[in-house]
Amino acid sequence: MNTPRIRVGIDVGGTFTDAVAVDATTLELLGQVKVPTSHHHEDGVAHGIVEALDRLLEQTGCAPADVAFLAHGTTQATNALLEGDVATVGLIGIGTGPSAVFTRRLAAFGKLELAAGKRLPLAYAHVDDPQDTSAVRRAVEQLQDEGAQVLVASQPFSVDRPEGEQAVLDAARPYGLPMTAAHEITSLYGLHKRTRTAVVNAAILPRMLATADLVDAAITKAGVTAPLMVMRCDGGVMALDEMRRRPLLTVLSGPAAGVAGALMQERVSEGAFLETGGTSTDISVVRRGKVAVRHATILGRTSYLNALDVRTVGVGGGSMVRIGDGRVTGVGPRSAHIAGLPYACFASLDQLRDAEVDTVRPMDGDPADYAVIDAAGGRFALTMTCAANALGRVPENDFAHCDPETARAAIAPLATVLGTDVATAATRILDAGIAQVKSVVDAMIRDYRLDKNAAVLVGGGGGAASVTPHLAHTSGMEGRIARHNEVISPIGVALALVREQVERIVPGASQEQILAVRAEAERAVVAQGAAAEGVEVEVTVDPQTNTVRAVATGATELRTQDRSHRADDTERLRAAAASLKTDPAAVHILAGTAAHTVYGTQTHRRLRPTRRPVRIVDMDGVIRHHAADARVETTTVAGAPEVLARLVGESTSYGDGGVRAPALRLLLGSRIADLSGVLDPQPLLALARSELRTRAADEPVVAVLEVRS
Fold first, then answer.
1. In 3D, which of 133, 84, 91, 85 has the Cα closest to residue 109?
2. CA distance 46 to 37
3. Which of 253, 330, 443, 610 is 20 to 30 A off residue 553, Cα-Cα?
4. Which helix H or strand E contains 557, and what residues bound it?
């Protein structure tokens, strides 16, 4: 029997390292293992990664040569910053005159607090002329004497003139220290923020380099020929060499792995992803098929690190119930894990005999209002998971499922104290727990202007069933628990795409400059192993900040999924109608390609113009894009330039806010090319032509345009 080619994802957590094997063709889960994270091994977390891989290959019957893709996510960088376990950074400031005043102020980064009582270890030296090799070497030796283990060079305006920083690194190279230049970390203006981002990156560089080398050597020794990739904090993966240069990109990558799994496995196009563990829930947003990303706050200050916008609420599956004055007053933030107590719902009925409710103080300083039950089998915690099981909200095959009868028996003593029945008591627990979660979800829906008609709630993590189903029930939103939710993070690592983001400040950017940024991002992901034929690039031009941003994504191999089931015409129509909140008879096919069908309807509102909402549905029946009001037209690659010029001209808005081209998306082959980030008509059309350049002249093209007000 032939074993399949597999994609392996490994998620290194604080306690356990989870690994999964996914069929590289069907993307179905083939195996999963869990091993303790090896923090204290001489090889560090690298040992646990290799152990997890060995067990996974044994479980699936696959050989190292069968691994087509291997990636891991790690909390190592995040933990290093949180715990203050970082290297001493030697910062070399460059400049004379007014520039020297600004760079000398950078020495204040030594006051940055990493953890309680721990500051960022930093030594500062200054050089006036970066071309003065002797002066640079004296500065390096001074920094070494002060304990520097890694070097950073920083100069004002190095984004435009990087030669000075590069000269300092060249002169310092013989000393053998890891080093980086501020302009290599980000190409955005702002000396202070750019240097701070580079300094924090450098602080974790030696430790991350050591781990990278150990993992790389161990994987190679094991016989795996697939290149090792590492999870980024923006939901993609990067090559190991790129991680060696910018390890800071792995900070906050834990939540990114879960939402990457929701994007690729659950194929969410609009909604919120809630990853619930035992103690907390991480909430992130997917908008129009993309994760919401923003500049991250690190050590209490904003950085130029683009990371998943994730907001954490202290409520999870193990969160304990709090009571007072005969009512449920809250849930969490303490969990059964912190209190060292077992969940009551996972006890046996015999252990729950003679149960009585008591209240405890889980940790010193906590209020003594956390409910527990003392029963024949000992003391147990009443948790969100207990309440969800009592109400039958936990699916039978779920990681957190228990016998509902046992869960109801666990809640019964509390119901008596509250003077109500079990179902009402359990509902009050879940209501109190999800109140905080709902507040954050509602805020994120507003912040990102999600279409509530199309938005879904997707739950991941081992505690998903304790939060997402009840939140969906009470909010009226569609909700579901992700398949294999307990290992959604390593699945996300296994399925993640290679990603690179290039940002440039270009005042009044021309078509050529915008295309050059696009090409740079595309080359970067191809250099990291992405198949050139499948690379997609999203370009955004912000006229207020003069920022040109290109985000390129691609798979390390062209995926030709052989799915056993494709949605038929009726299923796709039904999915579109459900999303449009209308009868299928009122929905019409407007256009289509081999991979996507565009459905639309009309809405008539009194005293307002008719709107034409649109849904793009893929072959699996998944909504890949939705528009509240759109214009749709079909053409060919040969005819597209003329047709698009006409459509863009007719749909461009002019006003006090300037020129605003329509949000344009092109359906090409199996892809949806998103060009909605460009507001100027001419660069927009230039980008459209770049998307068409390698296509056959007679290939169909569907244009979907949304007029901007």
1. 91
2. 9
3. 443
4. none
| pLDDT tens readout for residues 443-457 | 999 999 887 777 899
Q: Is the backbone of residue 340 left (phi > 0), alpha (psi -120 to 50) or beta?
A: left
CA 556/CA 7 separation, integer angstroms: 10
**So what's the pLDDT on residue 301?**
73
Exposure string of 21-31, with b = 16+ CB inside 10 Å and e = fewer, is: bbbbbebebbb
In Å, how far are 102, 306, 397, 539, 707 from 663, measured between CA atoms?
Answer: 41, 23, 43, 12, 7
CA 614 to chain centre: 27
User: What residues contact 189, with CB distance under 8 A and at least 6 apart?
Assistant: 159, 505
Which two tokens mark 515? 């295309």
pLDDT tens digits for range 384-409: 999 999 999 999 888 899 999 999 99
Which regions of the chain are under pLDDT 50?
1, 560-564
Distance separating alpha carbons of residues 274 and 313, to the nearest angstrom = 10
State residue 2's pLDDT score: 59
Query: What pLDDT, on the 0 to 100 scale, is given for residue 99?
Result: 84
Phi then psi for residue 215, to 5 deg, are -65, -45
Could you tell me the two tokens for 504? Answer: 């440039």
Please check whether residue 576 is in contact with residue 623, taking contact to mean a CB–CB distance below 8 angstroms: yes
Instruction: Specify the pLDDT at position 553.
Output: 87
Of the candidates 360, 276, 285, 361, which has an alpha carbon nearest to the alpha carbon of residue 317? 276
pLDDT value for 277: 86
What are the CA-CA distances from residue 46 to residues 95, 215, 230, 236, 295 (Å)? 41, 5, 13, 21, 29
What is the pLDDT at residue 385? 96
The C-alpha atoms of residue 390 and residue 385 are separated, in whole angstroms, by 8
Q: What is the pLDDT of residue 565?
A: 54
Residues 1 and 61: their CA atoms lie apart, in Å, by 11
